[in-house]
């Protein structure tokens, strides 16, 4: 809380401390990208970036380059990258959202950064949500506001919230979710390093299970003690009484500080470390770290110019069926978006629909209602890394009732493949969608490639 950091914060950069940490060999390998999220950080923006770069220079001997810095009050996010990757990064965008009283006052909210690394899109959100044991519903609302209002990534994807705009989205910060258990019981479990019973009463886990927040986000298993609220200057004691102008507040030890992520299907992401430092004591929180290995796709350059239509790959749909959460009985259509398409495409309205339940509608399209999509490149290696985003919209108000993402990788071939996935809208699961499709790649495009990395 508004105290300068200690001289050495290397343990935070190298994932050293408690929980899942990196082994001695991996620790010494500099990462390609470092992303830092802080709350209640009173240092100036430039001063903070310079400080982080100096720490990195100190132990990696590399001059990391700043990609982006975004701050809102004292909530800051900084992205630094190895110099050799600087020219691989494009489409950088930043945004912030206030979530105070009436969305204006106070010091709570979120900052975000997004960019492309070669052909892969990344989003990073650092947030500070409402505090207080009893404020779970307010925290959930903060999350939904940020999801809806943070303006990052490709502006053409405005029909999709940020949880679907990126190949990989990382969301972290002081989420402030608490443990619903008696203070003495919590302390007893912590002293015995028994975290399992505590994780069962962790508000974030409970709200996630109820699909209230962080729908389909992943989090690595927590094997480190609660990171809040410590006595400053030591990590031996939790302090759970806090004097406020309104009286004494009880802060039970909790995992307030978290890292979650959400990646497109059939992509590579591995969490190699998730823990907290035990030697940085200037704050009443312990800093949390995560280390990830993420696959990035290469910039693709076609060897062959498109000479004739027989060289063209096609994405064809045989049928699609969606079950949508709605009491309305209007007609629906689907919009298809992808970086592999020159522009988005629309289906015709559905040709049949039925309902067994007043709150849900089954909507069906046959191949006649569905467009054939032409990717901008037809090489199989390119198409294997592409994804389609779909949004199901009503004809009467053009409003989306659900969005989803489909990986093309397992759809490539001469016979149609089945897909099935969930639909979500504004952070809520709203139904599911299934269908039959194929990505037809001409024979001469099955093995030509030139990758620029």
Automatic annotation (TrEMBL):
Q: Which GO terms describe its cellular component?
A: cytoskeleton; cytosol; membrane; nucleus
Q: Tell me where in or outside the cell this protein is found.
A: Cytoplasm, Cytoskeleton; Membrane; Nucleus
Is Hydrolase found in the keyword set? Answer: yes
InterPro entries membership: C2_SHIP1-2_2nd, Endo/exonu/phosph_ase_sf, IPPc
User: What class does this enzyme belong to in the EC scheme?
Assistant: hydrolase
Main location class: cytoplasm
Q: Taking every annotated instance into account, which residue ranges of this chain make up the domain Inositol polyphosphate-related phosphatase?
A: 1-302
**One Pfam family here:** C2_SHIP1-2_2nd
Keywords noted in UniProt? Cytoplasm, Cytoskeleton, Hydrolase, Immunity, Membrane, Nucleus, Phosphoprotein, SH2 domain
GO biological process annotations for this chain's record? immune system process; negative regulation of insulin-like growth factor receptor signaling pathway; phosphatidylinositol dephosphorylation; regulation of immune response
User: What EC number(s) does the entry state?
Assistant: 3.1.3.86
GO molecular function, a single term: inositol-polyphosphate 5-phosphatase activity
Its record classes its membrane topology as: Peripheral membrane protein
The UniProt family comment states: Belongs to the inositol 1,4,5-trisphosphate 5-phosphatase family.
**Name this polypeptide is given:** phosphatidylinositol-3,4,5-trisphosphate 5-phosphatase
Its source organism is: Asarcornis scutulata
